[in-house]
Amino acid sequence: MDEQPSEVPAGEAAHPLDRRAELSEFLRSRRARLKPEDVGMPDFGRHRRVPGLRREELAQLAGVSVAYYTRLEQGNGRNVSAEVLDSIARALRLTDAEHNHLTHLAKPKQHKKRQAARPQQVRGSLRQLLDTIDGVPAYITGRRSDVLVWNRMAAAVFGDWSELPPQERNWARMVFLRPEYRELFVEWEQKAIDIVCLLRMDAGCHPDDPRLAALVGELSVKSEDFRRLWATHDVKEKSHGVKLLRHPLVGDLALQFESFRLTGDSELALVTYHAEPGSGSAEALRLLASWGTDATRAGASSPR
Question: Which residues pair with 233 in a beta bridge?
Answer without folding.
Answer: none
